[in-house]
Amino acid sequence: MLQRISLPAVTGQNLNLVDEVNDFIDYGQQRELSPLLLKCIRTGGVDALAAVQRLYEDMYGGMTFNTELKGPAAVALLCWRERGLDALVEAAQRTPTFKNQFLAVQVLSSLASAYLPELLLGLAGSDELLVAVRESFQGNEALPSLARQRLIGYILALPTDDDAVSSAGFVLSSFTLPPEMGAAKELVAALASRWLAVSKPTLSAYEELIGLHANDEKQFQAFLTEWPQLLDPMVMQLWPEPDLNGAKSPDFVLRRTDGSYLIVEIETPQKRLVTRDLQISAEASEAISQAMRYRSFLMQRVQQASVHFPGMRDAECLVVVGLERELDEEQKRVLALENEHRHALRVVGFDWLANRAEAIRSNIISGSVTRRRIRMT
What we know:
By secondary structure, this protein is α/β, with parallel strands linked by helices. The chain has two domains: 12-196; 200-363, Trna Endonuclease, Chain: A, domain 1, CATH 3.40.1350.10. Helix content is 57%, strand content 7%. It contains 17 helices and five strands. It has a five-stranded mixed sheet with strand order 1-2-3-4-5. A hairpin with a 4-residue loop joins strand 2 and strand 3. Helix 3 packs parallel to helix 5. The longest helix has 19 residues, at 282-300. The two termini are 37 Å apart.
């Protein structure tokens, strides 16, 4: 999860610096930008970081060519390394204008590919500024990984897919030089993670649905139809409430990217999973029976079923009922044993879907595949 940076109050020794930034935003000329950024970089510390962040974030009264002022400041933030990247993201989220989003995505995707966007620095017209930022860039081997994490986290945190596509699309069209192709690949990969992982706003909406409508199955049917990645992160096709021969209708049938199938039966979060006397509840048992009946029905007619469900040869089942966080340790053991002894079927709570999605989202943000060799003795 992206951490919001905490900037302390301005100290007396940096008061003049803050005044200079305020005056520049109100009355400054472009030729004054580079000396001001250099002064902030040389001063260092959180007050100077806050000053550069403001030079990037402010819209300068909406003037047309404010990118020439904002762009160099956005790149100069990396002189504060990890805290600078956090400041870049924080400002774009706090003031989500098109230019702030554009610059944040452009800078993060460039840095993730180990490419310094020197063209943005060039807008300040100062070789001295370029050298100062380049030294910070070249001396930080961890920077690409840190930038990649924040790029993915930023893309996943955007409220809608339209916001993500819009932000990424304009930046991709700006990458025209051969050295920028690596940045384009990083951005495409970050955008793809939007569909592999469930975004933070979606998870928040799901938790809110659990809290407000715990006994409304239709609302969960609609939500999971909209966000089937909660049911399975590898979903490729989804059939909500398919009509099986006019007599049977599971809540969902989905096809994964590997071609395998999953039959899903949902109840509601309000229903029990395990009783106080350590038995699978009647509601869960009924849902299990229904899911298995649907599976048997399709497997007995696999040739006919494959006409409507391409390549179906077998199917697993998932039953979603209740909330696992409401179970005590003994009840959790009962549920674990139930799942261990079932073939091709798993019973989970609605919160389990959210917890898995959050784990996937966090792991995608954290970085690439790690490789380790071990020897057990």
